[in-house]
Design a protein that fits this description.
2 copies of one chain form a homodimer. Helices cover 44% and strands 16% of the residues of chain A. With 250 residues, chain A is of the alpha/beta class.
Amino acid sequence: MVQVTLIGSGNVARHLLSALSDAPEVTLLQVFVRNPEKAPKLPAETELISDFERLAAADLYIIAVSDSAITEVSKSFPFSDRLVAHTAGSLPVNVIDSKNRGASFYPLQTFSKNRKLDFSAIPICIETADPADMKILREVAGAISNDVREVNSSQRLALHTTAVFVCNFVNHLYRLGENICTENQLDFNILKPLILETASKVMELDPKSAQTGPAVRRDDVTINRHLEFLKDDELIKIYNTLTDSIKKWN
Amino acid sequence: MVQVTLIGSGNVARHLLSALSDAPEVTLLQVFVRNPEKAPKLPAETELISDFERLAAADLYIIAVSDSAITEVSKSFPFSDRLVAHTAGSLPVNVIDSKNRGASFYPLQTFSKNRKLDFSAIPICIETADPADMKILREVAGAISNDVREVNSSQRLALHTTAVFVCNFVNHLYRLGENICTENQLDFNILKPLILETASKVMELDPKSAQTGPAVRRDDVTINRHLEFLKDDELIKIYNTLTDSIKKWN
């Protein structure tokens, strides 16, 4: 049995809380939230605390707070030489105050409130400053996910940046598409099979083979028809930037 | 029983061929391909032809060829006053030569070779120049899809443009992401749960509520970390263009 304490109450913390609570191999010892009134529901065996002085001895502390608060939180810990991991994708292990043994526990997924996720399919990227700590980290990560990978700090930054491209930017394109639909009295639902198939396709095909549309065909007649339709400067800029890039890459 | 003849041998034509062959309510009378050596496998009851003079009487002719060839193909038909539909998303119904009754039969999906699709879930957008033709078009579309919608020419152009945003541009972002992975000795498979969840999320949440990441949080420290990591001018341009747009919309 491995004992874990979780710090934070945001989206990542809440999803981790739920996954860790469900894992039979893990005892979720304590959950720290700054404001106890905003505390999530906890399992009976887990203690809610709001004072760092009350942190009990655990095998692993996971700090799931905003990037800018990680160092400060780790400095507030009233102990030393324990294993402390953060969940930030773009930060190295050494943002954890050096009085403790720093580590990274980065679940690569997009977390929204009220959205149920199957944690077992979420890749967890782990890294430890001291190789001897890898065993505990593997144990905790393996208790909630079937896809645990060792990823160093520079690779993790690469992954975090890539996630912006394949998730945040993609979702924004959905939003722009939704807006074009609304402006043309079209139901956004009509695009959902296309959105799902576009994602499903690259589960099997590489993105190069999966590409379709006017840019990869160099069909400038259609491209100009789209640009004329769009009118709006911002949309035209996005359309041209991505169309030029598709042409360059194909 | 409605009799349909299909013209073309590209991706859309091949997927339509397979769906129409499987529909009990449809007789696929003839398939026209310019080069019979490149002809797809046909059901026993369907005739392969390569000469427009051999086109037999059908209730509906579907022209699934490249946009630029549609008008020419429709001019080559040796008959008049029959119902002729094209499958192009960005073209009005009147690109069909006026000696026949023009229509649109636009399946809103991304079609790749060797990729099996469930046609019943693909929205088919239909339009006819003569409202009296709507009945036949509905019958054929309804035989292969559960989602048939009347969409006029300007709405269809809006949809086709939107499809570029939510499919072609999205797939290109996958490709750029794959490349960042390769350059950093990372396995692209690690991103697949994120890609799938990003698409699955907007099946239920609207894209505005689904947005996560540094741009929507206005986390410029992380954004600058990503830009510094990217280095490459093209990637930085795409990153900035989409980040600025997310900030503007949120």
